[in-house]
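Lab notebook, bench 4. We co-purified these components, and the gel suggests they stay together. Before we commit to crystallization screens, I want a quick structural picture of the whole thing.
Request: model the full complex, all chains together.
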Amino acid sequence: MKFDIYDFSVLTASIHESLGSMMGETAVMITEMVIVGVIFLTLFAVLGLALVYAERKVCAFFQQRLGPMRVGFWGTAQTVADAIKLLLKEPLMTKSADKFLFNLAPFIIIIASFMAIAAVPFALGLQALDLDIGVFYVTAVSSIGVAGILLAGWASNNKFSLIGAMRSGAQIVSYELSVGLSLLTIVVLTGSLQFSEIIESQREGWWIFRGHIPAFIAFVIFLIAGTAETNRGPFDLAEAESELTAGFHTEYSGMKFAFFFLAEFVNMFIIAAIGATMFLGGWMPLHFGELTSFNEIMDFIPPLFWFLGKTAFLIFIMMWFKWTFPRLRIDQLLTLEWKYLLPINLINILVMAFIVLMGWYF
Amino acid sequence: MERVELQNKINSFGVEVTFAESEVPTQFLTAEVSSENAHALISELKNNSDSSFDYMFCQTGIDFPEHIEVLYHLRNTQNNSEIVIKARIEDRENPAIDSVFDLYKTADFHEREIFDLFGVKFNNHPDLRRILLDDDWEGYPLRKDYVDEVNIVEL
Amino acid sequence: MSVKELHKATESQEYFVNMGPQHPSTHGVLRLLLTLDGETVTKVEPHLGYIHRSIEKMCEKDSYQQIVHLTDRMDYLSCHMNNEAVCLAVERGLEIEVSDRVKVIRTIMSELTRLSSHQLWWGVMGMDLGAITSFLYGFRDREMITDIFEETCGARLTMNYNIPGGVMFDIPANFQTKVKEFITHFRQKLPEYDQLMTNNIIFRNRTEGIGVLTKEDAISYGVTGPSGRASGWSNDIRKSHPYSAYDRVDFKEIVYTEGDSFARYKARIQEMWESMNIIEQLIDNIPEGNYQEKTRAVIKLPKMEIYQSVETARGELGVYINSDGKKNPYRVKFRSPGFSNLNALNTMAKGGKIADLVTIMSTIDLVIPDIDR
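Here is the predicted assembly.
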């Protein structure tokens, strides 16, 4: 039995048709944009809820305790309760803080996350923006977030925030290089920057298996650099400091703090999603080139679940090593990037390019 | 080093010192000096290669009705012999004595504590100010004549 | 001004940062005034006294049995050893010879206290460095010891089990079984600690070569305990002036020579192994005898001066009692290990980064009530 992978573009085309019959061109465009915006806002909220709950439970199980259990069935309503609490908090503002920039900073970070998540392919045809420069777009847009962090630290008018923001800015700018270069390694294999084409090219098997050693090295570097990009895990000295208060978001409270918090989790989702797309095949089920019957069984599971499963797996790995390893110091962090990851990355790309030329991949 | 030997050694230093005599033998060899000679005796004890007491394990102040004493407990880390030096400060109004910070760096905090609680000024101390109480506290609490109606509850 | 001096004047941007009394990693109420130049620490100035409770003044009005109860509020993680110090001092003054049973019980309880203190230290050290999971693991293992204490003494933190003349109650019937159970359990768990932190490359990079304290500085500052032994100075009171049952057990004194944070860390982990060895040697043969020698209700020491030191988990705790024959002592001085250890913080942290300062403070293992008394 062959299960065809359901093509969401059929659904979106039919919605476009029905809207087009009801109103004019511009109205259709605006309505569609509003619908997509609302869907993504909901996605944001739901993702935030789910990820915060997942983090608390995963962390608790690693620490041999249970985590949230009382609010809702097994604690599922805990995040909702936290969100309500944050909404009801007084939004403080210090007198000497720069008002406009202080308020602007959280929005910049959220906007950067929004723009990046728009390009993530959830299933065949279920992708808001399928640009032909997809990879380039995502790396470019996620670096807008740095501006938000630096603004937050500067506008708080607080020594500790400034130190935290400077550290974080240096860290993010350095690790963007590694993220971009490790993604480039896969682009060399596929020959295209467009996400849907990258996923299509993994129909015979995922790149992490077919690209063997260089692809695996690129995957490991991507994971490390990706966690550093989102200020998570062993690279979180800018914020979770037991040294100097709470870093760049010390002065924020209430909803604005919720924005920073949410943006961190959604960024983690984005990094995991991009990693799953490039290295683990995105929504493509697990295929091994020749085994057609195996492939048909794999097709039985809908691609949306494949995508969510892979992303969840990568998120679990990121949470795992956040709760296990101690923190790196800022100079050790930067040394890791500039002296180790960057040279390894560059050599890896060369090796991959050579392998592609020689055709030594599966 | 045996006590008697140590006693003779100290007598040969040339600093004026008296040894505590009492019916009950003391736990350590105790030498009493005046406050002017304390620093000289201690530096001789530390630097002299026969005795070389290189570790001061306790520095205490005691308030007596007529005088204040500063006690130095010294130990030799090689052979674990110990000695107590009692420096007697006669002036209770403005007690002052030379600091031993140049010999033992642990005196930094210990002397600040004695200054804080007894009022003894240490000459040549790098940074003599109160350590346990507020900087603007008045009075020296561990003295026997310290009166504080607010904080001390007499039962 | 020459060009060089002008450069220096405009470039030096030292600023002051307060790691205030309430802070997650100062282990108590300690205020540190840091002078920073960018990320580098140029001077650390501790400000003490936030938890000064004038214990020494109170002791001048208390009887000797009451003093014992004040001591376990000082270093609350090694309270049994604090109590033992005062009890030994008073027993020396009254010339009481306690029975072997008391000595062995006191030693076993001291080593259990040392173990639980080191377990808490390990958990908190991981938390300070960012591996928050280690905090939970340390406390999980510590629960078994606090359960034993609760059953024996009635309290989990401030035990007051020692009194001058012996111990307050006899050990319960299942004491030996429970302690042996704990030892078996912990012997398997301690290698996990090594897997989680000691062999972790991030942890090594954060602790090796950080905060070096030379042997001369250690002796001059009087840094005792594992912190001093990691600098090469062999100062274990249990070896040099043995008390209770330490002269009849066989254990190694852990001394390393590097003097950096990693050496201090290793010294404490090794001490945990040695503590378990000591307990194992004593637990099977607790001699029979009195658990309490009769003393008068009102203890009066003759006119004398006593100094008694014990080895707590942090270093040498000394009790100096100056008695003038009355029922209250004339002067009691507690030579606390933390007071001298903190003195050396400036030497160790100068020139390092802020993150290194946190590492150094957690390896010295400070307990602030011990410093402030």
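The first strand of chain B starts at residue 18 and ends at 19. Worth comparing against the SEC data before the next meeting. The longest helix of chain B spans residues 107-118.
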